[in-house]
Structures are given as C-alpha cells and as structure tokens.
Amino acid sequence: MVEKISLAHGDGGELAHQLIQNVFITTFGHHDQAKLDAAILHIPQEKLTISTDSFVIKPTFFRGGNIGKLAICGTVNDLAVSGATPLYITVAFIIEEGFSIPQLQKIVSSMAEEAKKANVRIVSGDTKVVERGSVDGIFINTTGIGVINTEEMLPKTIDKQDVIIISGTIGDHGISILSARGELGLVTELNSDCASLNDLTSEVLNVSSRVKMMRDPTRGGVATTLVEICEDFNVTIEINEDALPVKEEVEGACDILGFDPLYLANEGKLLLIVAKEDEEKVLAVLKKFDIGREATTIGRVSEVETNGRLFLKMLLGSRRRLNRLAGMQLPRIC
C-alpha cells in the first residue's frame, strides 16, 4: 500500500478513487451518498443555521487532539452557540504531496469519532492534493448545518446585572499548542481543551429561557469575544480579575512569555450572558458535565445603551479597559 500522498491522489483517477474509498468512505460511511455529487438531506424544520470554517493549525497533532477533531468540534460549536442542534457537516481536505496516509487515517478516524460523540453526520466532502510546499501538510474546510428548535436568543434583551459565565479554565488550547510547537523553550503536559459543546448548550437552553447569548471564545480569547459583544450590542461589561479560572500551567507560561490568558484561544469553552435570576441554575447544569465542572461567573453587565466597553476589575479595585487583541499573538492556532 502507498504510504504517502502523491499528486496522482488528486487527479481523479485510480489512486484518488482508492484514497476516497479506503480512507474517507470506509471511515465516515454513507456509501450510497458517495455515489452522488451532492448529499440529499432530510431537514425537519424550516429554520436552519449554517456555518463554515477552515482549519490550518500547526502542529497537526497536539495533546488532546488533532486537526481533524478540532475541525468537527469547531464547526459543531459554532452551530451550538447559536442555539441550534448541529446535524450535518461537509468536509474538504487540501493535502500536501508527501503527506503520510497513516497520519491521514488517524485524522479521519478522529473526525468520525468526534462526529459520533456530537451526534452529527459527515455527509459530503472533497479532496484536493497540491504540490509539495504549497500547504503545510493538510488543511481542512468544513460547513455545518443545524436546526433551531428552541426560541431564538435575543441579544437585544441584554440587561443591566446580567451575569457573564465561562464553562471552565481559559487559555488551555493556546498554551498547549505553543508547547507542542516546541517554540520559546516552553514544555508542558497541558492538554488542549478541544471539545464539542452541543450537549452543554442543549441542556442549558432546556433549563433556562433567560440565556441572552452564547459564544465560544476561540481566536482572540475571552477578552476579544466580550469586546465584540459590547460593541455590537452597546453594553458595558465588567469582569473580575480574581474570578478568572486559569490553570497553574497557563498562568506560569503567561508570566514567563508575557501573554495574557484573556487573549489566548480556547476550543472547548462556552461563554454565556445569562439573567441574574438563572445564574445558579445555569451553573448547576454546566457543572454536571466533565468539561463544565469548573464553570464560574466572571463578571456582569454594568450598563446598557452605552458606547460598548469591556473593563477588567483588578485585584486592588481599579479598573482597566480591555480592547480587541492587537497584532498576532499565536498564528495558526486553529
């Protein structure tokens, strides 16, 4: 068996056929749909959500996952935080000539495993092979489709004293990837937090009708995500420095490298704005899950109908304004 990707794997001939049959269809299934140029989907509701994303992470494999798992989790989470139930995913691969087929199989297998956990189906895909040096190993593009089966969240109803909740520690993914690259002498056993969040979002929406907004704070981290919310919906949010959940490994790495965990990427954390009345109810639901057991309230909405701003309340009582991430802190993070 050929162990490396060649340009012939992308020319639509015999090798391309073997790659698609032996790696993708065998792992993902849906042999009947593979006979068509497009997947036929059965959508029970008319209100759909759709999201597309590309994944170029370096390195391809890291503690807690790989580019394949990340692609599924990232797409599932984009749909889930919109209040949708993810149903279908399409996947396109751009593969560099010379890429290891056994490694490709590991990536595809992890995608199939994560899709099964998240109860979504991979229904369509494409494969392109490019010359050596044209991409860095493998890039993946996905599109996800979900359905809205609850009342839509209404961000315009964000009110003063609504609370800001995070489902767990921040910055894990960013520091894990930096360590995996072997850059700057950073060595840590920290796993990426890469995980699908749709079970969490579904349970939260089942118990609370006062969830105003959900986001997954990936690139740019929690701070950038909250700044965008503040500016888009004209609210002022204040988060508390002493309430931020940060692992010792992340805090130590940030101290050494001069990073701020608020701006580091996460790939398995849920950020919520919830009415004060439902704070304890939502926290209790999140803590039922392994990936939500460290959920905590980190701040509140202090003003509405203002020029949107985000503030960090420091340990000594002063306030510091937070802005979007400026510049490029960690490239190729997802």
Strand content: 15-25%
The CATH fourth-level homologous superfamily of the largest domain: PurM-like C-terminal domain
Class per helix and strand makeup? alpha+beta
**Mean residue pLDDT:** 90
How many angstroms does the end-to-end distance come to? 31 Å
Name given to the CATH architecture of the largest domain: Alpha-Beta Complex
Radius of gyration: 21 Å
- Secondary-structure element order, as H and E? HEEEHEHEEEHHEHEHEHEEE
- Kindly report the CATH topology of the largest domain: Phosphoribosyl-aminoimidazole Synthetase, Chain A, domain 2
The helix content is 25-40%
Strand order of the largest sheet: 8-10-7-11-9-12-13
- In the CATH scheme, the class of the largest domain would be Alpha Beta
Total count of helical runs of at least 4 residues:
8
Shape: globular
In terms of per-residue confidence, which ranges show pLDDT below 50 for 5 or more consecutive residues? Answer: none
The biggest beta sheet, please? 7 strands, mixed
Query: What is the number of E strands?
Result: 13
Number of domains: 2
Pfam families: AIRS (PF00586), AIRS_C (PF02769)
Organism: Anaerobacillus arseniciselenatis
Protein name: Hydrogenase expression/formation protein HypE
Family: Belongs to the HypE family.
